[in-house]
Model the fold of this input.
Amino acid sequence: MKYLSRFILWLSGWKAEGKFPEAKKFIVVCAPHTSMWDFVIGRLYYFSVGLKPCIMIKKELFFFPLGGILRWLGAIPVERFKKTNIVDQVVEQINKSDRFVLTITPEGTRRKVKKWKTGFYQIATKANIPILCGYFDYKRKVIGIGDLYYLTEDVEHEMRKAKLYFKDIHPRHPEKFTIGDVQ
Done:
């Protein structure tokens, strides 16, 4: 699967930047997320480097046969409209696992949103694991990752830092992406 994925990415003109760390547990904060192609390209990239991350996907997509395929790809069903503590559930899974890579899109949807979700921050700080930023730059046809780092206790500072990281990345659908107001 690794070499086939590399070939498909190469054939479609995508290149990779950065190298995944040796850390056993971390979160990839991935943006911009404006297209279902982000998932396809991202999954090919993960296959090409031999990683199988967990991703959170709305529970409505877990019907037969798609649900089985999504679980095989590392998807965790999320009930978006029910008051559940997803953060604690994910932290519990992280703590039980020897290796755990979680990819989160802070926008939470492919639509344009002004306010990003803080779930990645809450999970990373509660589980005491680092994050790194991952991106899809459609203009340059590059999928990449940044450096691994631990978050501070200042959520506003960390959200601003994450948003600014993605400010020059070109999404598939630019009209669906914003980093919002960042002072």
